[in-house]
Amino acid sequence: MEKEKSKSKSRKKKVIVITALLLVIVIGVIGVNSLKGKEEGVEVDVMTLEKGQITITVPANGVLEEVEKQTIYVEDSAKVLSIEVEEGDYVVAGQVLALLDGEDLDIQMDIKKEMLEINKLELEKLEKAYEEEKAEEKRQLESRLRKMEEAKADLEKHEELYEHGAISQQEYENYKRAYEDAKESYKALKDRQDTHELDVEKMKKNIAITQLEIEEIAKRIEKQESKIVSSINGVVTNIHLEEGSFVNPSNPGFVISNVDDLAIEINVNEYDIAKVEIGQEVEIETDALPGKTFKGVVEKIAPVAKIMSTGQTNETVIPVTIKVEEKDELLKPGFSVKTKIICQEKEDVLVLPFDVIMVESNGAKNVFVVRDDILHKMEVQTGVESDFDVEIVAGLEEGDKIVMNPSSMLEDGMKVIVNERQQDDK
């Protein structure tokens, strides 16, 4: 029994010794590989710093609109005899769009003249009746005024007697009622006289209004044309009239658009507007014409900003007008477009992608440069920035090997193995 225990302990010792030896071997292998890695270097991708072009742009979306558009209204309610054009037709200034019948104004003139004559006869009748009744009404009015004043004096006198108990309440009420009746009688006659005067004045005003209406119709007849014409060159984009119908002066009859002269109004964010200037070139694209780019120019920048709702937030923007300089019959008003304002272009400058630059907590900008397979941490100064690239103005030289996508494991002075890429492959 004791011999078996001794054999078991011996086996355990052998296992422990073997495990320890294996652990030493593993640690040794790791150490050797680590030393070997340091000697050979860490693999990094690098690019050669070259001179090139950098472009600063401001993108925005908008809609193509006509710069010149004529909405034609017809002043008079004339009958449409015929429409001489169709939607989509190209017309020139002075071209006839529709023919009208002007007889309706002549009929209106005849009606107004008849009304004027009737009103004059009615006025004459009112004035004659008023003059005949005026003298009698004046006499009656003076008589009723005198009776009212007498009744008032009697009421005041008997009111004092009533207060001293000299007359009964019934007698006092009789005097009071007599005064009220006299006052109502005077007022009724006075109102009737005022009504006669008002009727005469109203009729005079009706005559004056009718005369003005006749003068207005005469002016309209004088300048009325029997046709509707376009005052600009363009395309008929809308027709709101029908043959045989009457023109409604409050509604447009035709819309003529100059589709050769187009513009786009975009909204530029307040943070980008400082980059935008009048005269800058603009690239214009539309999904309606894929693969094509049209030229434009910044024509106008609004003097004030506005608040634009974007989803659940508000954004401060400045309206900017872009003139489309490149003419193309395929471009149509109403197309949605994507614009790109070319704010600044610099050529023959050192350019790097943003992702090679490391920004320190103090704001310093650094890159790793590889020289003789050794990393050198270099501080750089940058210039203008595009969406993806930045100009290098100091700290580097053309031909420097720049580490791409530097990791936090890299250190100044570290030995590296270089995998060089072309700048176009970044």
Task: Describe the 3D structure.
There is one protein chain. This protein has helices spanning 2-40, 103-163, 169-223; strands spanning 42-48, 51-66, 69-73, 79-83, 90-91, 96-101, 227-229, 234-239, 252-257, 262-269, 281-285, 294-301, 306-310, 313-324, 336-353, 358-359, 365-371, 374-385, 389-394, 401-403, 416-421. It folds into 4 domains: 42-52 and 348-425, conserved putative lor/sdh protein from methanococcus maripaludis s2 fold (Beta Barrel), CATH 2.40.420; 59-65 and 258-346, Efflux pump adaptor protein, beta barrel domain (Elongation Factor Tu (Ef-tu), domain 3, Beta Barrel), CATH 2.40.30.170; 70-99 and 227-256, RNA polymerase II/Efflux pump adaptor protein, barrel-sandwich hybrid domain (OB fold (Dihydrolipoamide Acetyltransferase, E2P), Beta Barrel); 104-223. With 426 residues, the protein is an alpha+beta fold. Strand 11 and strand 12 (294-301) form a beta hairpin. Strands 2-10-14-12-11-15 form a 6-stranded antiparallel beta barrel. The protein has a 4-stranded antiparallel sheet with strand order 3-9-8-5, with no helix packed on it.
